């Protein structure tokens, strides 16, 4: 995904500006054929506050984590990313298949 917004947007009065990451799962777990068979995807699906699945021939597979919510124990492969995102003040992470 390409960020088409300016890096320092001018917020509307009264609305907070939040940071969000978008992460292709293949960068975390490597190549896979079926997301339903990837344990990290299963955890993300359980913890997600929003999902977007199955638009055209079920090709869309996106889940949003809200880092302000209490999350179950992180899978080891996701720990470095989630720890760094939390430390950097990221509010949301959009995980997607590519």
Q: What is the topological layout?
A:
Layout: E1 19-24, H1 26-29, H2 39-47, E2 50-53, E3 61-66, H3 79-87, E4 90-96
Describe the structure.
By secondary structure, this protein is an alpha+beta fold. The chain has one domain (28-96). It is built from 3 helices and 4 strands. It has a 4-stranded mixed β-sheet with strand order 1-4-3-2. Strand 2 (50-53) and strand 3 form a beta hairpin. It starts with 18 loop residues before the first strand and ends with a strand.
List keywords for this structure.
22% helix, alpha+beta, 3 helices, globular, 4 strands, 98 residues, four-stranded mixed β-sheet, single chain
The helix count comes to 3
**Amount of beta strand:** 15-25%
**Content-based structural category:** alpha+beta
Radius of gyration over all CA atoms, rounded:
14 Å
Summed up, the domain count is: 1
Overall shape: it is globular
Biggest sheet strand order reads 1-4-3-2
Question: What's the average pLDDT?
Answer: 85
| pLDDT < 50 stretches | none
End-to-end span in angstroms? Answer: 10 Å
Order of helices and strands: EHHEEHE
Task: Work out the helicity level.
Answer: 10-25%
> What is the β-strand count?
4
Largest sheet: 4 strands, mixed
């Amino acid at each position: 995904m390409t960020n088409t917004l300016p890096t320092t947007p001018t917020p509307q009065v009264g609305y907070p500006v939040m940071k969000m990451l978008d992460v292709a799962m293949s960068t975390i777990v490597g190549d896979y054929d079926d997301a339903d068979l990837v344990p990290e995807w299963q955890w993300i699906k359980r913890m997600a506050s929003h999902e977007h699945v199955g638009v055209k021939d079920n090709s869309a597979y996106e889940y949003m984590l809200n880092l302000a919510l209490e999350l179950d124990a992180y899978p080891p492969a996701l720990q470095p990313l989630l720890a760094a995102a939390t430390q950097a003040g990221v509010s949301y992470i959009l995980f997607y298949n590519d």
